[in-house]
């Protein structure tokens, strides 16, 4: 990125392995992914550049998504096997596809009304 938004401190984004990119910021998500960072995005649009660049795309409203993330972490707290299973079975691309499929099915059912 060529703007001031590209600046970061070593103790922050630069040294981080995983970075949350809330809301639409395709430039930042793509730049971070290109740096080898694991990007988690929260964006209503599963077809946005932000969602496409993210290893973990979350298509939801931000306050609901954050609450769900906290609840999910609490459920798995202290259960390494549950964490391993979640990591092994997760696919960001599959999640994006399922979200798009759900939206398309919902729109098609509305069309028939």
TrEMBL record:
GO BP field: coenzyme A biosynthetic process
Gene3D superfamilies in the record: Phosphopantoate/pantothenate synthetase
UniProt GO MF annotations: ATP binding; ligase activity
Pfam families according to UniProt: PPS_PS
Keywords assigned by UniProt, alphabetized: ATP-binding, Coenzyme A biosynthesis, Ligase, Nucleotide-binding
Ligase is among the record's keywords: yes
Annotated PANTHER family: 4-PHOSPHOPANTOATE--BETA-ALANINE LIGASE (PTHR40695:SF1)
Name of the protein in question: 4-phosphopantoate--beta-alanine ligase
Organism expressing this protein natively: bioreactor metagenome
